[in-house]
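Treating backbone geometry as a discrete language has practical consequences that deserve illustration. Part of our work consisted of pairing the sequence of a single chain with a tokenised description of its backbone. We regard such an encoding as a compact summary of how the chain folds. The amino acid sequence and the backbone structure tokens for this protein are reproduced below.
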Amino acid sequence: LTARHKGLYGNEIPVTLNYYGFGGGEVLPAGVNITVASGVKGAGAPALNDAVAAMGDEPFDYIGLPFNDTASVNTMATEMNDSSGRWSYVRQLYGHVYTAKTGTLSELVAAGDQFNLQHITLAGYEKDTQTPADELAASRTARAAVFIRNDPARPTQTGELVDMLPAPKGKRFTTTEQQTLLSHGVATAYVESGVLRIQRDITTYRKNAYGVADNSYLDSETLHTSAYVLRRLKSVITSKYGRHKLA
């Protein structure tokens, strides 16, 4: 098998046999054995500079990032930052970035530890999750958009990630492992009755400028609520005092 797109992305495309097992009518015929080879891993990711530049100053509240490599995430983090990015006083565009990664517990912990960014949510899923990372990111972004538009302060937990196939039973993260991910800035998901759902949407932000543990921007809903309040204040002031001057 050859991934259609080059680079790191193809490394997280799941390839498996008989996902639903005997109970689902998926078994190999007697005497037939099939082994899925590890394959050759791709390398590299597209530079996002042109894509970010094309965004200009258009508002995007929910940004789904299909790439989870360090360079791609940092490029988006620069675009979102509080000093000169979308959250700066000059631009006042706001928004939030959602990306996803599949891997082992240690791989996801290492990924989360790379970042400390309040405008980025990195969701981690089991290595055996039967949906590629870019689709998981898109689904989570869409679900968050629906929930947050209704109420930016209400948690997104239990949100269904429609048509996303979770890892099979026996290969899912335990409660302890999910807590470990959350402690390292990785958002989590869980499975209920075969349906993959949002467990908690957190950001990768964990420490303040002093390197001290800080939960100010732990939950993504905090950032969405802040954006709502800032926009509301601007709307009230500019509507009531649009062309006023100080006497």
Remarks:
- The first strand starts at residue 62 and ends at 65.
- The chain is about 30% helix and 10% strand.
- The longest helix spans residues 220-240.
